[in-house]
Amino acid sequence: MLTSLSIKNFALIEKLNIDFLENFSIITGETGAGKSIVLGALGLVLGKRADLSSLKNKEEKCVIEAHFEISRYNLQSFFEANDLDFENQTIIRREILPSGKSRAFVNDSPVNLQELQSLGEFLIDIHSQHQTQELSEENFQFAIIDSIGNNQDTISEYASLLKKYKSLKSNLSGLKGKLQEASKEQDYNSFLLEELLSAKLKSGEQEELEVVFEQLNNVEFIKESIDKSLAISEAEQFGVLQNLKEIKFALQKIATFSPEYNSFLERINSVAIEFDDIVSELNQVGESLTNDPEQLELTNQKLQNIYNLQKKHQVATIHELLEIQDVLDNKVISVDSLQVEIEKAEIEIVESEKQLDSLSEVIRKNRKKAIPVLTEKLISILDLLGMPNVRFKIDVTLSEAYHNNGKDDLEFLFAANKGSDFGLLKKTASGGELSRIMLAVKSILAQYQKLPTIVFDEIDTGVSGEIAHKMGDIMKNMSKTMQVFAITHLPQIAAKGNAHFKVSKSTVGEQTLSELKLLSKEDRIVEIAQMLSGKDISDSALNHAKALLN
Predict the structure, then answer these.
(1) Angle of CA points 454, 455, 458, to nearest 5°
(2) Mean pLDDT in the chain?
(3) How far apart are CA 441 and CA 464, in angstroms?
(4) How far lies 521's CA from each of 480, 486, 490, 495, in Å?
(5) How does DSSP classify residue 535?
(6) The dihedral sign for the CA sequence 75, 78, 80, 86
(7) Which homologous superfamily does the CATH classification assign to the domain defined by 2-134+432-519?
(8) Which of 3, 283, 338, 360 could form a disulfide linkage to 407, CB 3.0–4.6 angstroms apart?
(9) Is 495 in contact with 528 (CB distance < 8 Å)?
(10) Which of 419, 425, 410, 420 is nearest to 378 (CA)?
(11) Which DSSP letter does residue 55 get?
């Protein structure tokens, strides 16, 4: 419940501090006195957007602070989810700076407007004539029926499953799109893959083949060069080997004369050994060289195939071709894999639909049980409110689609008089009738759920006399289990409150100020008498006011 409200530098209010009571509170005041300003301040606390026009003094900041007792609201989980400190006495503060910036705090922790709006929905429901249009909205109509049918937990479970179901459907749609694209390229990708696989490519193979090709393609020239090298090396009198032996023999004669000469001998000896090995290997290579046109042709074909594949795929190495081969392999495999995933997703969707259908059937049965209860209660209350012939026709029918709150379509029709046809509320009911229906709905909902503090803003417009008495009784009865405020112009309703606040406007110097104060018993008699007879209060008006209060 709202326990206190502090307003500083807002519209016509310079400074205001007011405490509120439980149960039923009345707010009255002349038109233009500032009742809308108080509601506007509450709206800012609940997360409505603000601008500089809200500031009375444009050089100072506006501060609105509301205190709430929330120990019975079960809001701990909300505070935890939004990383806020939970306090039974929660303080919401809204500041509007001269720069135009706005700040909001919950228990001194900064919050954004979305968080503030979400919290505000649990705390205060400001109901005005304009909001009676909610009655015509299907979601609100379902909410009424579901409260009576105790569907909240089932709908919560359904909503969680529906979220998963939509995710599965989205995933399936994505998989089918991928499959469609993959299928278009499947034949071509398979052809490219087979072409690469048939080439039996190996990393480093191209370099080896190019060496073999050069050898086979130049075998005669190579053999000629090797033979010539061997001839020069092995000639009996003037060959390199013979000459090295001669040099070695000459150096042996002088090697003992100095370390330098001995070093020359060792180096020549190393050269002779190395050269001997070269000649030996040249002999082996020369003997192995053969002219093999068939092998040359095979090597050439293999290389040409590699070159063609590189040109086709616009790469320069076998390594890159092998990478492309892996990609194509995955693409070809992915079509089969996608088909398996699609089949799995379809099975999951069917199972999810079965669970949704089962839950929606429970919701539908509870709604059908709740509808006659709601209809009976509405007719009973509205009879008291001067609508004795009102009738409702409410039906739920199975829908093909999964809605956010079940699988039902709703028909909520209304007839105000005998013999009149049923029609939609927004087309059939007048503003006064909508106000009374909304009051009846709120009073019924108060029996089935923990409603936040309700502010009825002139819901009594268009009624008077005994009907106003009944409306006051209904609001007073609601206030037994919740905090109710009624902003009213009717003395019959004003007299029902446990507390009575008056909004008044005064001129101080060059300024116009609004204030809100709690009326004493005597002030309250005067205020109700003025509501009955105007500023010139008669004795009969005073007596009537006392009678109403008693």
Answers:
(1) 140
(2) 87
(3) 20
(4) 21, 18, 18, 11
(5) S
(6) negative
(7) P-loop containing nucleotide triphosphate hydrolases (3.40.50.300)
(8) 360
(9) yes
(10) 425
(11) B
The token pair at 374 is 């709601």
Are 175 and 342 within 8 A, CB to CB?
yes
DSSP 3-state of 238 = coil
Of 229, 270, 277, 279, the residue nearest 247 (C-alpha)? 270
Find all residues with CB under 8 Å of 441, minimum gap 6, and list them.
Answer: 135, 144, 378
CA 484 to chain centre: 34
Residue 326 near residue 243, CB atoms below 8 Å: no
Instruction: Identify residue 163 by its one-letter amino acid code.
Output: K
Whole-structure pTM value:
0.68
pLDDT digits (tens, 9 = 90+) for 246-301: 888 998 988 888 999 899 999 999 998 999 899 898 888 887 777 778 878 887 88
Q: What percent of the chain has pLDDT over 90?
A: 43
Q: Of 431, 187, 210, 434, whose CA–CA distance to 302 is shortest? A: 210
Q: Give the tokens for residue 513.
A: 């100020």
* Strand bridging mode 124-128 / 453-457: parallel
> DSSP readout, 346-409?
HHHHHHHHHHHHHHHHHHHHHHHHHHHHHHHHHHHHHHHTT-TT-EEEEEEEEEEEEETTEEEE
- Give the residue extent of every domain in the chain: 2-134+432-519, 177-337, 521-550
Name the helix (H) or strand (E) containing 501: strand 499-508
Query: In terms of DSSP H, where are the helices of 113-218?
Result: 113-123, 138-148, 152-198, 205-217
Residue with tokens 């105000």: 416
Residues 433-456: tens digit of each pLDDT: 888 898 999 999 888 887 789 999
Q: Encoding tokens for residue 21?
A: 């009571």
Q: What are the CA-CA distances from residue 468 to residues 300, 384, 471, 473, 492 (Å)?
A: 106, 10, 5, 9, 6
Distance between alpha carbon 5 and the CA centroid of its chain, in Å? 34
